[in-house]
Each structure stands twice: as structure tokens, then as C-alpha cells.
Specification:
The protein is α+β, with helices and mostly antiparallel strands. It has 23 helices and 16 strands. The structure holds ligand H91.
Length: 651
């Protein structure tokens, strides 16, 4: 990897490990040098993007126009000859999907808190003329305050004639797709989004999908019939709301406008969902402008002018991140980099050291585990190798860093990088750039008059809606259920104080009666219970290469499952034994298993990590799981399968 691809990025950000992959992109954690704020950096390789380049353009243009408390914020776009970097709001809580499966399902109250935020985000983007078209729990992230942020606008549409124009492109994830969409009919984007929200609400409250099947054609038939199971724990109010959203006839489906004041959503709130932006781009925060103008030695007027160009350059990023820092109650201060501005005498090291000190109070507390290194870790290199992506070497980076002696001194020159990105070929998206004076900070009427017009027939995007997609199994009775039901002879006893509050990793459920177990055994929450059994029965075994270092010490998090076991090697051995049986390829690095599955044609269908770790409060062994690529529900079933097989072999 040539350093110059990262040169511009590394002027402003420190780059840490990969935190996920999204289709054609890799997402890394970063730190904005001037504010010390954490950011997520979506990295795309232009060459590998190919036909997906318009999708990236769509996403960037949409995100530039969107500023809302429940929409992930875009801060900065950097385009180099080979790469596109999108610097985004960092959401330490990860995907809503993982949160749901860690809890099996959410209570009605918690589902309502989240669903109000989803309705708020969707009503706002509709008010701005966009339909999202890929609403699902994987595209909702949880921020540091446990609030949801909508991501992935690559499939969104902004019909030229407004929200009520018909669209034709069939896109999104099959299980969330509206009946009219899979039938290839012209559809209205906002109506299709409401259907997906119905599927989403069902997933929140049930922990599984209303329409699901291994066979995509069977799945489509189920969607078109619109019949789904109503589990007994759903209240009459939620059953009614679901039925209003999951209406096969889009004309009979509830509208966002009516959703805002739906009795189910008002319960306990007594006020409709607030959909308008609480952070409009039009208003400039005086403290932030002052700090920036002092830093760059500009007048406040000049600084305000530079900011309001909204070029999504370093000025935009610094302003928005400073504002975010202020909102978190932190001082509105930029890192003073006087050492760095001195020609070549002052060491870059000094600045780095200072930055590190300044960043000491950053939010590591929110992270599921401590991000150890400010440089590329071994782990990172390893991961990249695993993916066949050439990593930037430590040597190159250090050399490059040392050369950046003017890193923080450059005045903010608005870069028009985004203009280099080719025009989208997506006919359903007009040039979505709103006139500056009509930015999203105005509160437009959310529902513009209807002007119906049939869209131009375009080829359904089969790349996205995958009719032939391989699925592993859709057996609703999770394999973990067997384990849980057979757990009366469980030897493990878990003291109440060992429970993880935030996730309700209710290890005590091993003692529940069978009726309760049946209810709670659907998804990942059951993972805890199953693993617990597996692990207590393991025989000690020597594993080569693991005596070296101990497992990492991680914090309790809902992606970390606690195991009632003191020996991490036993757990690692067992997982390593089972993975090949499940056709999972893995590379072991210390206590981390970097796993992947491949299709018959050698395409990587799934990538995830399982890491055996040590928790200190309580002092137990844990397993951190992280999906990096692949269908979320298939991943869930695969991990459950791996664990249930551990059990079968051990009995
Ligand atoms: N999925 C659809 O895995 C599979 C933590 C994490 C923290 C993030 C902030 C922004 C984005 C991702 C974050 C993230 C894709 C982000 C935003 C936009 C976008 C993309 C990502 C994954 C990709 C990694 C994500 C979660 C979703 C983590 N991720 N861990 N903050 O288009 Cl707008 Cl791809």
C-alpha cells in the first residue's frame, strides 16, 4: 500500500484497528487529532469499487444533506487517486442487531424507546426527500449515549419529483423487502421503508424475522402472503401496530405521518415522535467558531464563512467534531500544536506524545475493550493479510509521520475532493445537493404534495437483492434450545453478581423452568447458557502456541459473553476443535480466532472473530464475538450451531 493513499487522511487522523466491513468498504476506528474525538473511517478502494462507485456517490451526497440526531453524521470526505475515505460519527455501541441477539429480544418498553428513534430518523429523511431502502437492525448503530444512528445510505433514493414518485430498482435485503418491491412493481420509497420498519419492529420484539426461509423464492411467497406468526408475548397494541405496517397493499399501509402519533408509540410519552432535526446545519455554534478562529488565526467572520461552505473538508470535520465534543460536556478546545508548526526543529514525537495525553480522557470507557495502540497493531496487519489487503507497514507509517512536521498548522483550505467522484448513474437519484439556503436546517413540511409519475424501468439490482444467496439454516428452534432444555443437570452455578447488567447476559436462566427456557432460547442470549454448559464439561488440554501471553482483559459488553470458567485455553481448544466441522476456516492469533466461511465458488460469505478474553469484573473468562462480514441472521445461526456442536461432542 502506497503511503500517499493515506497521506491526506493521516494529516488529520490517527488510524486504529478495523471495526467492521460493510460490503465493499472497510471501517476503521480513528482519532481526530485536533479534537481528540473518536471517529469511524469508512475506507473504499476505487479500483475494487467498480460499478459500486455510484452507490458511494449516492451515500456521500445524501449524508452531506442530512443532519439529524438519529442519523450517523458525516464529517469529512477525502478522495485520493486510489481511495475514498468517509470520516463518520463513531458509535461505540455497535449494531442494533448484535444488541437484539445478545438479549434474545427486547422488552416492549425498550423496543418503544428505540422504535421512536427509528421513526424519527425515517420521518426526517423522508422529509428531506430520501427513502432509505435498506432499513434493518444492522444499519442502526448505538452511540455512546445509547441512542440509535441510522447508517448506510448507499441504496437511498431521492426521486427527482419528490417522495411520491415511483421507484423501480429492487434493492435492500430480501427479508426486509416490501411485497411490491419484490414483485418488481413500481413502488413508492417511503411506503417500502414503512414495511421494512414493520419487519424491524418485529425483529426487535421477537428476536427473529417475521418472514424467513432458506429458499429465497419461498421467502418471497411468504412476504407476498403477508402472514406471520404472532408470539404470545406481544401486547395487543404492538400486534395492531405491526399489522398496520406489514400491510401487503402499500395503500393500506400506515404512513410515517400517522406513525408519529400512533398510540403505541405515544404510550408513556404523551407526545408524538419528534422528527425534526435538533442539530440543523444552518446554525453555527459561537464557541466552536471562536475556538476555530483563534486556532487558525482568522477573524470570526472569515472562519464562519469557511465553515458555512460545508465542503466536508477538514474545516467541516473540525467544526462538527468540536460541536460534538461540546455536546458531550467536554471543553471546546483544539489541541494546540505549536511544536508541530515550527519548521522542522520541533519533533513530531512531542506533538504525538502531547496528543496522547490530551486524548487520555477520551471515551475508552465506552469501548467494549481497550484499543491498545495508536499505531497499527500486529492484529491489524494480520487481519489485513487475512483479507489479502496490503497493510501499511509500521516502518512506512513512522517514516511518513516523521515527515508530517506541518501536520496541524495547515490553514483550512476547502478541498473540493468530492467533486472528483464520478456522477452517479442511478437514475432514481437526482443531483441531491440541496441549494445551500434550503439546507436541512429549515423545517420543511415533511410530506410534499403528491405528483404521481411512473418511473423509468431499470434493471433490478441483483447484486444487492440476492435471489440465490446461500443460507445456512432457518430452523427457528435454535440448536441452543436443545442445550438449554437439557440443562437440568447443569453443573455450573453462577452467582448473581457475575451478571452483566447492560446486556442482561442472564446466566441464571440455566435454572429456569422449561416453559421459560422455551421462550428465551431463540437467539444469542441462549448462547451464554449453552456455552456455559459446554465449558464446564471440557477436559483440560494443552494447546500449542498459547502459553505465550494470556488473553486480553476486556470490559463487559453485550458482544462479550461471560463463561463460568477459569481456564481460557480450555475454551479456545474446544472452539478450535469444532470450527472445521462447521466448515469454518480460521486463523488463530493468540486468543483470537479470525473465522470465515466460503461459498462453493470460493467467495467469502462470512467473516467474524471469536476471541477468548478475560473479564475482571467479574473475574471470569469471556468470549468476544464480532461479525465483520455476511448476513447477520446467518451469522447468528452459525455461532449457535458451533456452540451446540461443542455440547454434543462433549456429552
Ligand atoms: N453493516 C451493514 O462494526 C454490516 C463499530 C462501529 C462504530 C461506526 C460508525 C459508522 C459506521 C460504522 C460503525 C461501526 C456495516 C458506518 C457508517 C456508514 C456506513 C458504514 C459504516 C457495518 C460496518 C461497520 C460498522 C457497523 C456496520 C462496526 N461498525 N463497529 N461506529 O455506510 Cl454511513 Cl458501512
Amino acid at each position: 500500500m502506497a503511503v500517499d493513499n493515506y497521506e491526506e487522511l493521516l494529516k488529520y487522523y490517527d488510524l486504529h484497528e478495523t471495526i467492521g466491513t460493510g460490503g465493499f468498504a472497510k471501517v476503521k476506528l480513528g482519532t481526530h487529532l485536533l479534537t481528540g474525538e473518536k471517529v469511524a473511517i469508512k475506507i473504499m478502494d476505487k479500483e475494487s469499487l467498480g460499478d459500486d462507485l455510484p452507490r458511494v456517490k449516492t451515500e456521500i451526497e445524501a449524508m452531506k444533506n442530512l443532519s439529524h440526531q438519529h442519523v450517523c453524521r458525516l464529517y469529512h470526505v477525502i478522495e485520493t487517486p486510489k481511495k475514498i475515505f468517509m470520516v463518520l460519527e463513531y458509535c461505540p455501541g455497535g449494531e442494533l442487531f448484535d444488541y437484539i441477539i445478545a438479549k434474545d429480544r427486547l422488552t416492549e418498553e425498550e423496543a418503544r424507546v428505540f422504535f421512536r428513534q427509528i421513526v424519527s430518523a425515517v420521518a426526517y429523511i423522508h422529509s428531506q426527500g430520501y427513502a432509505h431502502r435498506d432499513l434493518k437492525p444492522e444499519n442502526l448503530l448505538i452511540d455512546g449515549d445509547h441512542n440509535l444512528k441510522l447508517i448506510d445510505f448507499g441504496l437511498c433514493a431521492k426521486p427527482k419529483g419528490g417522495m411520491d414518485y415511483h421507484l423501480m430498482t429492487c434493492c435492500g435485503s430480501p427479508a426486509y423487502a416490501a411485497p411490491e418491491l419484490i414483485q418488481g412493481k413500481a413502488y413508492i420509497g417511503s411506503e417500502a421503508d414503512i414495511w421494512s420498519m414493520g419487519v424491524l419492529m418485529y425483529a426487535l420484539m421477537c428476536g427473529y424475522l417475521p418472514f424467513d426461509d432458506d429458499n429465497v423464492m419461498v421467502l418471497y411467497k411468504k412476504i407476498m402472503r403477508g402472514k406471520y406468526e404472532i408470539p404470545k408475548w406481544l401486547s395487543p397494541g404492538s400486534v395492531l401496530l405491526l399489522s398496520q405496517m406489514l400491510q401487503v397493499d402499500p395503500k393500506k399501509r400506515i404512513s410515517v405521518k400517522h406513525l408519529l402519533r400512533h398510540p403505541w408509540l405515544m404510550q408513556g410519552y404523551h407526545c408524538p415522535v419528534e422528527w425534526y432535526s435538533k442539530c440543523p446545519l444552518g446554525y453555527l455554534d459561537e464557541d466552536c467558531v471562536t475556538e476555530l478562529s483563534v486556532y487558525y488565526k482568522h477573524s470570526k467572520e472569515k472562519m464562519s464563512h469557511l465553515i458555512t461552505e460545508w465542503n466536508y473538508d477538514h474545516t467541516t470535520a473540525t467544526y462538527l467534531l468540536l460541536q460534538a465534543k461540546k455536546a458531550r460536556g467536554k471543553p471546546v478546545r483544539l489541541v494546540r500544536a505549536s511544536a508541530a508548526v515550527e519548521p522542522s526543529g520541533s519533533s513530531f514525537k512531542e506533538l504525538r506524545a502531547r496528543n496522547k495525553l490530551n486524548f487520555e480522557d477520551a471515551d475508552t470507557a465506552e469501548l467494549p475493550y481497550v484499543f491498545g495502540s495508536m499505531e497499527f497493531s500486529d492484529d491489524e496487519m494480520f487481519y489485513e493479510d487475512f483479507n489479502g489487503i496490503e497493510p501499511i507497514s509500521m516502518k512506512e507509517r513512522t517514516k511518513f509521520r516523521a515527515e508530517l512536521n506541518s501536520v496541524n498548522s495547515a490553514p483550512a483550505t476547502p478541498l473540493k475532493q468530492h467533486t472528483q467522484i464520478k456522477q452517479s448513474e442511478d437514475k432514481e437519484n437526482s443531483d441531491s445537493k440541496l441549494p445551500k439556503s434550503e439546507g436541512p436546517f429549515l423545517h420543511p413540511a415533511p410530506w410534499t404534495p403528491i405528483t404521481k409519475k411512473k418511473g423509468v424501468l431499470t434493471t433490478p439490482n441483483n447484486n444487492i437483492l440476492m435471489p440465490g444467496k446461500e443460507k445456512m439454516s432457518t430452523n427457528k428452534d435454535s440448536p441452543m434450545k436443545k442445550i438449554v432444555q437439557a440443562s437440568s443437570d447443569m453443573t455450573a452455578t453462577i452467582s448473581p453478581e457475575r451478571r452483566c447488567r447492560s446486556v442482561d447476559l442472564d446466566l441464571n436462566q440455566v435454572h429456569l423452568d422449561s416453559a421459560q427456557k422455551k421462550k428465551g432460547a431463540k437467539v444469542f442470549g441462549s448462547l451464554e447458557r449453552g456455552l456455559d454448559r459446554v465449558i464446564t464439561m471440557l477436559t483440560p488440554n494443552k494447546r500449542k502456541g498459547c502459553a505465550r501471553d494470556g488473553p486480553r482483559k476486556l470490559r463487559a459488553h453485550y458482544n462479550v459473553t461471560m463463561i463460568n470458567l477459569l481456564n481460557p485455553d480450555q475454551l479456545l481448544n474446544e472452539i478450535v476443535r469444532v470450527l472445521p466441522q462447521k466448515n469454518v476456516d480460521y486463523v488463530q492469533k493468540g486468543y483470537t480466532l479470525k473465522c470465515k466461511t466460503q461459498s462453493d465458488f470460493g467467495k467469502v460469505t462470512m467473516q467474524f472473530e471469536l476471541e477468548v478474553c478475560q473479564l475482571n469484573k467479574p473475574d471470569v473468562v469471556g468470549i468476544r464475538r464480532q461479525r465483520l462480514k455476511g448476513d447477520a441472521w446467518v451469522y447468528k445461526r452459525l455461532v449457535e450451531d458451533i456452540l451446540s456442536s461443542c455440547k454434543v461432542t462433549m456429552v
